[in-house]
Automatic annotation (TrEMBL):
Keywords: Membrane, Transmembrane, Transmembrane helix. This is Phospholipid/glycerol acyltransferase domain-containing protein. The keyword Transmembrane helix applies. The chain crosses the membrane at residues 20-40, 104-123. It comes from Paramecium sonneborni.
Length: 257
C-alpha cells in the first residue's frame, strides 16, 4: 500500500513537472524566441504571429471546421466574439482569426511577456493593454477608437462571457460593455466557437499533451448591428446565436470523440 502511494505521488509530480515545463517553454521561452526570429528575418510585425504558430505546433493542434462554417472576415473592421475556456486560447484564437485580431489585455500580461509586449507595441499595436476599474465607457470607447487607428490588424477579439468557462457545457451570460461599443460604432460582429483545447492544455488540472489533438471550430456569419432597432435586441440576438453556435459545436465535437 505504501509503495502504491509512492508511485501515485511520483506520477502526480511527473505530471506537474511536465505541465510547468511546457508552460515555461510556450509562454516564456517562445515569447522571447518569436520576436527575435521576427527581427532577424526582417518581419518584426509578425512577432505575435510567430509565437502563436510555434505554440500551436508545439502542442500539435489540428483544426477541424464544422461543414457550415464561414470564413473569418479580415478585410474590414470586425469584432470577433470568441468563447474562452483555457489560457491556451490566446495563441489558438490568434491562429483561428488568421492573425487579423487585436487583443485586449491587462498590464500584468506585459509583465509576463516583456519581449513580446515590446515588439508588438513598437510594430503592430496588436495587444491593447488597459487598467481595470474605469467606469467611463465613453472615454474607454474613444481609447479603443485610437487603438484601432494605430493598429496594423483590422479586427478586435473579445470574450463576451467575460472570463474562462473551462469545461462548461453551457455558455455564460454576455457582458454588455464591448457589445455596446460594436453597436454604437456599427462595427460588424462575428461569433467564433473553438472547443477541445482542454485535451491539449488544461491549467486547472495541470494537464498538457503534445498531441496530436483535434479542435472543432464554427465561424458564424457576419452580424450587422445597424440591422437592430435597439441595443437590447442586438444583445438578445448575440446571446441567442452564441448559444446556438456553441451547442452545435459542442455536440459535433464530443460526438466525434
Amino acid at each position: 500500500m505504501r509503495k502504491l502511494k509512492s508511485i501515485i505521488i511520483w506520477f502526480q509530480n511527473e505530471i506537474i513537472i511536465k505541465f510547468f515545463g511546457i508552460v515555461i517553454y510556450i509562454f516564456f521561452i517562445l515569447s522571447v524566441v518569436a520576436p527575435i526570429y521576427s527581427f532577424l528575418t526582417f518581419q518584426p510585425k509578425r512577432a505575435q504571429e510567430f509565437w502563436s504558430r510555434l505554440a500551436v505546433k508545439t502542442l500539435r493542434l489540428q483544426f477541424r471546421y464544422l461543414p457550415n462554417s464561414k470564413k473569418v472576415q479580415t478585410n474590414k473592421r470586425t469584432m470577433l466574439l470568441f468563447n474562452h475556456r483555457m489560457q491556451g486560447d490566446f495563441f489558438i484564437h490568434d491562429v483561428v482569426s488568421q492573425y487579423s485580431a487585436n487583443f485586449l489585455a491587462r498590464w500584468m500580461v506585459a509583465v509576463a511577456f516583456p519581449m513580446l509586449a515590446i515588439f508588438q507595441q513598437l510594430f503592430t499595436q496588436s495587444v491593447w493593454f488597459f487598467r481595470r476599474g474605469g467606469n467611463d465607457l465613453n472615454n474607454f470607447f474613444k481609447w479603443i477608437d485610437n487603438k484601432f487607428d494605430k493598429a496594423t490588424r483590422p479586427n478586435l477579439l473579445v470574450y463576451p462571457e467575460g472570463h474562462r468557462m473551462h469545461e462548461s457545457d453551457k455558455v455564460g451570460k454576455m457582458k454588455n460593455g464591448m457589445l455596446q461599443y460594436a453597436y454604437d460604432r456599427k462595427i460588424d460582429t462575428q461569433i467564433i466557437i473553438v472547443l477541445g483545447i482542454e485535451k491539449a492544455f488544461n491549467e486547472k488540472k495541470f494537464h498538457v499533451s503534445l498531441g496530436p489533438t483535434q479542435l472543432s471550430m464554427k465561424v458564424d456569419e457576419i452580424i450587422k448591428p445597424d440591422q437592430f432597432a435597439t441595443f437590447e435586441l442586438f444583445v438578445e440576438h448575440i446571446q441567442a446565436m452564441f448559444k446556438k453556435n456553441f451547442e452545435e459545436t459542442y455536440d459535433n465535437h464530443y460526438k466525434q470523440l
